[in-house]
Amino acid sequence: MRSTSRADQADQRRAELLEATRKVVLERGLAHTRIADIAKSINVSGGLIHYHFATKDELITAMLRATLDIESAKLDELVAGPGSAVERLDRVLRYYIPESPSDQSWLLWIDAWNTALREPAVNEIMLELETAWLDALARVLSDGTEAGEFACEDPAGAAERIDAMLDGLIIRYTLHPDVLDRGRLLAHARTAAAGEAGIPVTSFS
């Protein structure tokens, strides 16, 4: 029992450190975050952090992977959820699009894209994130086609095109919300998805 209790305490401490790391990264950016900044934010020693994570890179990678795991689980839930294929596709699109230009998840991933150019471990996580989104879109399009709701001959290719368009528009929305608001962004997403699924865009209403 004592061993299990210690393991639980260690897991809880790691979770606290990962959450603190996420908050500091959102404030300072991946490149400018230091172990000392994270330690100060929750009033612990740098030594305690190094006890759980040998290096800053290991800590950052663990934080990104924990965020990826949460988002992947949510995607699985949306894809497997109740409703028609159109309803599930719309749920995935709405989840993809950030609630606001200051959405924490998207700010984190935009920052991680830049870091991924130089850090192989972060690059791998970004590839897994992209794959999770592509798989979710493709599964809904494929399910809808099999059910006779959609007419999509290439769900994987359609998912890539929707994903690429949304990434570009979301970056614009994040940087210039006065030029592109969320309502217009969602309308673009639905128009593109409807075209790929072979249905009228009014199906999303």
From TrEMBL:
Annotation: DNA-binding region: 34-53
Keyword Transmembrane found: no
Stretches assigned to the HTH tetR-type domain: 11-71
Keywords (A to Z) from UniProt: DNA-binding, Repressor, Transcription, Transcription regulation
InterPro entries: BetI_C, Homeodomain-like_sf, HTH-type_TetR-like_transc_reg, HTH_TetR, Tet_transcr_reg_TetR-rel_C_sf
Keyword S-adenosyl-L-methionine appears in the UniProt entry: no
Name of this protein: AcrR family transcriptional regulator
